[in-house]
Amino acid sequence: MSLNNSSSVFLDSVPTNTNRFQVNVINENHESCAAGIDNTDPPHYEETSFGDEQNRLRISFRPGNQECYDNFLQTGETTKTDASFHTYDSHTNTYYLQTFGHNTMDAVPKIEYYRNTGSVSGPKVNRPSLLEIHEQLAKNVAVTPGSADRVANGEGMPGEEHAENKEEDNKAGAVKFGWVKGVLVRCMLNIWGVMLFIRLSWIVGEAGIGLGVIIIGLAVTVTGITGLSTSAIATNGYVRGGGAYYLISRSLGPEFGGSIGLIFAFANAVAVAMYVVGFAETVVDLLKESDSMMVDPTNDIRIIGSITVVILLGISVAGMEWEAKAQVILLIILLIAIANFFIGTVIPSNNEKKSRGFFNYQASIFAENFGPSFTKGEGFFSVFAIFFPAATGILAGANISGDLEVYNNMLGNGKETSVYVDNISITMIVPTGACVVRDATGSMNDTIISGINCNGSAACGLGYDFSRCRHEPCQYGLMNNFQVMSMVSGFGPLITAGIFSATLSSALASLVSAPKVFQALCKDNIYKALQFFAKGYGKNNEPLRGYILTFVIAMAFILIAELNTIAPIISNFFLASYALINFSCFHASYAKSPGWRPAYGIYNMWVSLFGAVLCCAVMFVINWWAAVITYVIEFFLYIYVTYKKPDVNWGSSTQALSYVSALDNALELTTVEDHVKNFRPQCIVLTGGPMTRPALLDITYAFTKNSGLCICCEVFVGPRKLCVKEMNSGMAKKQAWLIKNKIKAFYAAVAADCFRDGVRSLLQASGLGRMKPNTLVIGYKKKWRKAPLTEIENYVGIIHDAFDFEIGVVIVRISQGFDISQVLQVQEELEKLEQERLALEATIKDNECEEGNGGIRGLFKKVGKLNITKPTPKKDSSINTIQSMHVGEFNQKLVEASTQFKKKQGKGTIDVWWLFDDGGLTLLIPYILTLRKKWKDCKLRIYVGGKINRIEEEKIAMASLLSKFRIKFADIHIIGDINIKPNKESWKFFEEMIEPYRLHESCKDLTTAEKLKRETPWKITDAELEAVKEKSYRQVRLNELLQEHSRAANLIVLSLPVARKGSISDLLYMAWLEILTKNLPPVLLVRGNHKNVLTFYS
Questions:
Q1: Are 10 and 71 contacting, i.e. CB atoms less than 8 angstroms apart?
Q2: Residue 21: how many CA atoms within 13 Å on its side-chain side?
Q3: Element (H, E) at 275
Q4: For residues 54 and 52, what is the distance between their CA atoms, to the nearest angstrom?
Q5: Residue 96 carries which DSSP code?
Q6: What is the pLDDT of residues 1066-1094, one digit of tens each?
Q7: Model-level pTM greater than 0.90?
Q8: pLDDT band for position 562 (cuts 50, 70, 90)
Q9: What is the DSSP annotation of 58-113?
């Protein structure tokens, strides 16, 4: 690698890269400066920055010193040398230009490395991999000046990501809002909405000033705690569109997020109807005053509401920018209307207003209205349910989170301010309750003549008699007139304008929020049937389909035309959403995940939990059956999403808590000593890739499912670099295969110089605490006679290693073998060819559709496509060739054998040849198998060795032992002739099998024999064969007995013979296993670690 450090770099130049960590040049020779300048003190350095040009490292100079440094300041480009960087030299005018992170592939920290691919906030850049930094640079790699720096500092990007970022640049015109316009304005408009102007006076009349303040205080408490929780979650990372749904789903996972997302979107859609009905009520009241009713009050509300929601839909569809401008104008009108109300309370009332119950501030009215006066059917919580939607405005800004410039900090600021704004409702209760009586006739003739006894009411004391309102309905007063605000104000039309602003703005905000939340839910593809609504249009990705759906829902509820009926429905759904938001914050804090680092620190996990409990309690107090229905719907959706298991991973707190819980349980297990009653087979299965030996995995999983640990292990043998690369690239894929096939097992892999070393590592290091493997499961090496000697040594060696580590061994043999990797390879090739064939057919179909369209241009396009796909028919013909090949090429029997343990085993037997006591593992495994659905119809038959003259006694003893173990069995057989010699044909077969591996040293002279032993130490010597002749007889004889008794069994479980190290050669041991299991049904050779795994003690 050549580096350039020419003198030209000392010159000032235009900065070309201002994102790199800069260290500017320092002159070491102070004498080179102009004479007379004091250089005794070193220059002062300003702070270092990785930021832009304005923030990079600079040097501050004293007056008069700057000229000495001007010629040496670097303006941003990294500096290179022809050979190497200069060493420190105190005797020359060397200027040190080395920039940190310059002469290395190692990258300095940058935000681009941490972005997601396709991030709207900037391009995602890949840092150099550990492999690129750790491995030696290839000698033939040419590094151009600056190229290494650009890669190291993240200035280059792959083509695919570059394309994605270009696409994001095309969306740069999307409208984004700040925290005032995007969050605060929307929240204020929703809080100061329909309830403030149309229902606040009614709430004061029903609950009184005291309880009214408590109602608003309770609402503020709920929304305030929720606001804190929302701000904490929102500032714990970048938040995309979806608002409350996004916060809950990314915090608690798709199960909770998906269930509450539908409810929350529906609540916002219903809120549109509530605000529009409030607007229509006001219009109908105006029509009443002018005697211009169209039909009747109810139908007029429906007509006006329907027209209004159509107009609002048009404004929303026009785009977010128009909607935002409308919101600001409406807020200004609203603020003027609120000020107008306060001014009106101090303007002296006239006779008309007095007859309608407005007397300005009066202590008697305040005292009378301080307590509650609930009408029939109303109570504290029913009134609270009607008011609560006014407080739900705190999520108005959150619902359009995808349209905010920098969502995180904005939401915290906006929500905190909006919660404070909510308190203004409390200040409006007092003037309302202190100025207006509860009931008034509206007749100026209802004055009291002096001298007549007063009925004790506040109005009576002020000269008006409204006592007839007790017996007949009146139209005015806090309890009857929803337009009290307009009457009290200084200028009534301003309040009307404020009501229009409040209702229309809130309706507009909800009409935008509901589709945005619903679109975010559909984009996550949690509910596949709703994918249709995920599509967006225009630069702002407007959910037009969601707008139509929201419009339909809103129209349906507008037809109810009763505000007091619609409001409690919304309260119920919003409280459920708030409960989960608060629980999300608590859950994320409680999980103690290192990723939980909210920038908004004003929250407390226990306060959030209190908020969640409070929301749930209020739901049930308001309307218990509605709360039950809400949670039943939510629970049903939760179960549905859990069952479907959407393919998403959002790093939720549920995952974090699951990890913490698993870790705690694992640590707790280490404090408990193992007990024989809790023993379960915990297996390492040498499957290689789990999909390559499915039968071996299936039979192991049959006795570990839901009860024991199962680890599918693979050993990669070869050069470490290649092995590690292959291993790492396949880990996720193979674990995903296990999950897809619903096998509760882990996948583990190691890279090693030889197979035995890899297995030895797995045996020692696999597992965690008490969850460590105690059984090794391997497939029988069917082709051992054709295998290289090293493979046989490794195979037998891992059995020895397992016994050394006191780990039980299970060897499984089936007639066709386990490895189906070749079949999988052929299937993969066929799938590729089929995909190419389908692609070709699609291309031809497109060409046919385009034929005749576009004139000459269409003709050229057609020719171009045909040229591209010309070679494909060759591959298509190969499909027919492969498909026409004989089924035997794919080894159909092998494929069928690989699935034999997936099928339900019919009525039959599992024959257990418990010849040697290994602690009970040989008996426990078949017993566990009989508990599984696939094996439950199989009965256990127990075969044990015994003396011919004691068969009945030993049978009774074994039956007694099995009954104490509480293991059911169909029959017990005592085999008394195990130790007799096998027949000549069987023994001859065994001798012929081992003949190629015998040394026959007894037939040679001593020198030749010793030489052969040194050259071929792996061969079976005559001395060895003679020493273990009785054992060899036993293996051959056992096969004869197995053929006689268990030929028709579904499965044979047999004690595995142990080869004593140093006494039994590997080839002889393999010959034993071969003759023992030859021509039999599936066989499990089992040997425990000779520690009890069965007990009859309670």
A1: yes
A2: 16
A3: helix 254-289
A4: 5
A5: -
A6: 999 999 999 999 999 999 999 999 999 98
A7: no
A8: confident
A9: -EE--TTTHHHHHTT---S-----SSSPPPP-TTS--B--PPTTSSSSPPPP-GGG
Helix or strand (DSSP H, E) at 855: helix 855-868
pLDDT at 579 over 70: yes
- pLDDT for res 451: 52
- Environment class of residue 836 by beta-carbon count within 10 Å: exposed (0-12), middle (13-18) or buried (19+)? middle
CA distance 4 to 6: 6
Cα 224–chain centre separation: 28
Contact indicator for 973, 1002 with CB cutoff of 8 Å: no
766, 677 contact by CB (below 8 A): no
Task: Tell me if 69 sits within 8 A of 34, measured CB to CB.
Answer: no
Bridge partner list, 1051: 910
CB 214 within 8 A of CB 547: no
> Exposed, middle or buried by CB within 10 Å (0-12, 13-18, 19+), for 3?
middle
CATH number attached to the domain at 185-644: 1.20.1740.10
Task: Give the β-pairing of 683-685 and 775-779.
Answer: parallel
Say how many residues make up the chain: 1098
Give Dmax (Cα) for the chain.
150
Q: Are strands 59-60 and 44-45 parallel, antiparallel or unpaired?
A: antiparallel
Cα separations (Å) of 129 from 125, 152, 153, 252?
12, 10, 13, 32
User: Both tokens of residue 140?
Assistant: 């033939």
| Cα–Cα distance measured from residue 462 to residue 445, given in angstroms and rounded to the nearest whole number | 14
State whether residue 242 is helix, strand or coil: coil
Q: What is the pLDDT of residue 312?
A: 87
Alpha carbon separation from 533 to 262, 515, 543, 592 (Å, rounded) = 13, 9, 7, 36
Count of C-beta atoms within a 10 Å radius of residue 406: 13
Residue type, 369: N
| Alpha-carbon distance values, 222 to 357, 397, 576, 616, 980 (Å) | 33, 17, 12, 11, 86
Give, as one character, the DSSP assignment of residue 473. Answer: -
Architecture field, domain 679-811: 3-Layer(aba) Sandwich (3.40)
List % helix, strand, coil for the chain (3-state, nearest 5): 55, 5, 35
Does the pLDDT of residue 160 top 60, yes or no? no
Beta bridge partners of 1085: 811, 1054
- Report yes or no: 140 and 128 within 8 Å, Cβ to Cβ: no
Mapped onto helix, strand or coil, the DSSP state of residue 170 is helix
Give dist(CA 820, CA 779) in Å, integer.
13
Place of tokens 């999983």: 701
Query: What would the DSSP string read from start to end of 412-441?
Result: HHHHHHHHHHHTHHHHHHHHHHHHB-S-B-
pLDDT of 531 above 50: yes
pLDDT tens digits, one per residue of 637-661: 888 888 877 777 777 777 788 888 8
Taking the C-alpha atoms of residue 595 and residue 591, their distance in angstroms, rounded to an integer, is 10
Give the other-Cβ count within 10 Å of 969's Cβ: 20
Q: How far is CA 1030 from CA 160, 1025, 1055, in A?
A: 70, 9, 17
Per-residue pLDDT band at 848 (split at 50, 70, 90): low
| Structure token digits, residue 847 | 């060409």
- In degrees and rounded to multiples of 5, residue 771 shows phi and psi of -90, 65
Q: Where are the domains of the chain?
A: 185-644, 679-811, 904-1087
pLDDT at residue 202 tops 50? yes
| Amino acid present at 895 | V
**pLDDT tens figures, 328-337:** 777 788 788 8
* pLDDT for residue 673: 84
pLDDT digits (tens, 9 = 90+) for 398-422: 554 444 444 444 444 444 454 555 5
What is the Cα–Cα distance from 35 to 72, expressed in whole angstroms?
18
Q: Name the pairing type of β-strands 710-717 and 938-945.
A: unpaired
CA distance 190 to 395: 9
Is it the case that residue 942 has pLDDT exceeding 50? yes
Contact (Cβ atoms closer than 8 angstroms) between residue 656 and residue 593: yes
